[in-house]
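Trying the structure run again after the queue cleared.
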Amino acid sequence: MSIVKPTLLANLAEKLRARAASSSRRRLIVLSAAALMALLALVLVWDIAASASRSRRTETAYQEGSGFVAEIRGAVLENRFAFLRAIADEGHEAQGLAAEPLHRSDRQVESLLRNSSRRLPDGEARAVLQRFVVAWKQHTAVRDSELALAAQQRGDAALKVEVELGAASFEKARSTLEGIGPLLEADLRDAKDAERNRALLDVAGLALLGCVAIAYLLLCLLRARRRLAHLHALEEKNESLRVEAQTEHQHNRVLELISGKEPLDRVLDAVVEALHQQQADQATGCAVVAFRDAVPTAVVRNVSHTLVLALKRYTTRMAAKDPVDVCKNELREAARAEGFEACRFAPVWLRGNEDGGWIVVFHKYETESARVKVQVHRAQRAATLAIENAKLYEQLVQQAHFDALTELPNRLMFHDRLHDAMAHARRYRTKVAILWLDLDGFKRVNDTLGHRAGDTLLRLASQRLQACVRETDTLARLGGDEFTVVLKDVRDLSAAMAAAEEFLKVLRQPFRLANHDLSIGASIGVSVYPDHGEDVTAVVKSADIAMYRAKALGKNRVEAFDSSMADAERDRLELEIELRAAIEGEEFELYYQPQVDAQGRVGGLEALARWNHRTKGVVSPGWFIPMAETSGLIVSLGAWVLRRACQQCREWMDIGLDVPIVAVNVSAVQLAHADFADHVRQCLAESHLAPAHLELEITESSFVSNAIETSQQIERIRELGVRISIDDFGTCYSSLSYLHRLPVDRLKIDRSFVRDINDASAGTASVVRAIVVMAHSLGLFVVAEGAENEQQAKAIQEAGCDFSQGYYFYRPLTAGATAHLLACPSAGIERHELEAFEDGLAETHSELSPSLQGEVSSAGAD
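Done. Tokens:
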């Protein structure tokens, strides 16, 4: 038995692979974070350098802006002076000449203003410069107006106003220009402060990144230290798991040996080897002792010869149930003498608290390791399982090859022994006899005294038979009450027959059982190899056929096989196959034999099945009825007879005939079916026949064999309104109790009483009269069957029987002849119809083999 599960080492490898994958992911994340931090540091350094460069460029730009402002201031003043000179000139021509410098000054101022607007950095100074540009344009407009009035040489109030306005606008533009300088200085200071703050922030960022890098470096160092410690722990755990995996592998190997049905010594050797390897580092010796049968089994490892002898003495004394402590102390002393300071004993307990043995572990030093305890405990469980499995296997072998009741070899062992005996006979040119025994009357013991008494009888019979068997022979029980004997090295058939007679002799002697002396016999069939078969199947079948011949010839006898038996068995098999096909093809026909009263009137009909064979004509029911019962075909045949009888009775009624009661024979096999009463109800319902017109004839033996079940079945049938008749009354152990208890309507006296009714010496007439008186006192009608002549018919009437049946009155009639009889009771039946039936029966009898004719003649016909 292989245990399929992942080992601990495989689980650890899986965990390590998962951790490696997780570590790779963490390493990738760390590298990405480091690269990002380095990139951020580069950006900060670059920004610091860029900030310094921007600060220098800003200072240069503000210096250039201050120069431009100074130039603008000078150009504005120069423009004012040029304007004043132009105003001061009186002549027009002169004025025109004086305006030329003014225009040059205007173009210079405009050029400076354009350059200043582009070169001056953004800020308040640039905004003030824009206002100055607007103010200057207003001033130039006022100045040009003033200059135009001066050109016209007007001295009126308008010119004065213009002069004042020009002076005011100039002053406004100049004051605006004067405010640009301080603003430039303020903007420069703000720009420097902004760049300085930005640089400080970059430096702070670099410091933070440095702190983070240092902290991460410290964390990595700490994690590396922890990982190193964890790796050491994993190595220790890996070693432990490796040992555990090795232990698990060894345990699985032990289980495989157990499941492979290996010998117990080999399994225990594997247990000891595993325990020794697991404790190899502790200098130990190991031993497993199994108490099985009378001789203990001991397996040792790493133990000296002296200690082995001491261990054997220990196991012997333990098996003898000596005191346990004394045995242990002696073994400890022997172990100390060999250098083992400690000796651990672990008992092996089996189911039912049975002592299965011991596991002994010798240690060089005293130890109480938990691992050692676990290993010893596992070895205990493995040894327990091994010993229990060995015992269970022995029990299974015993059950598979021997009968549980008699402890004799069963069918399987019988065939093995017979095969070996035949091989021995072929080699040494000898003969083997096979005896097939079937106890006669065993079923009666089972039915009357119970199955426990039957089991006791089988054991007693097997003991008697075993006492007659040689050591080289084999007595086996095949099942039920059948036994077989294999006799080796027999001289010939006569020697085998003599041995069979000895077996029959001991079985004929009474058995004392349940305060009863029971006398049984046996039907024994004998066959010899190689005379009666070349293989096991053939020679066993020959003995079986001979046994059935012994039963057919009266039981309690010995019969040897001959070839005619094989022919009869073959004919029987062929006829059984044809019988099965005949039932399926409805090749049967019902005949009806009338039952007449004292006045000769027909008071009833008995339905009798006849087989119209396709080639052999009419087959006697004395042959196919017993065959149908033994083969189980009687159930389907009986069902057809019951259904057809009900239908025929209904058909006669439909044409206006006065139909008496129709009796149908029922086999004990049919009664054994729980649904038989339901089948009767179904047949009545399908044919629309009143239950009072149907009577079921049940043999007296059915009551004796299964009294309780038969009584329950009859109660259910009687509740339907169907009449019950007991057939063949007087042939078994007749009991007044069941006649009084069961709802029976009629008794049919067996033909054996009617045959000898006129024999005064036999006293049969008195018995018949007693049966009639008894039946009438119980309110039952009596039918006597088998009346063949006038004397018998007269004796039946004198005995007081209510009805008579037999060839003297009527033979079985076809349905058409029966209808003619019922339509014209006084006319009778033509003789030629009866002769035709007799001729057909005779032809069928002549076509059967001689052996079958003898069995048919012994069975008789209805």
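The longest helix spans residues 8-88. Worth checking whether this holds up in the mutant runs.
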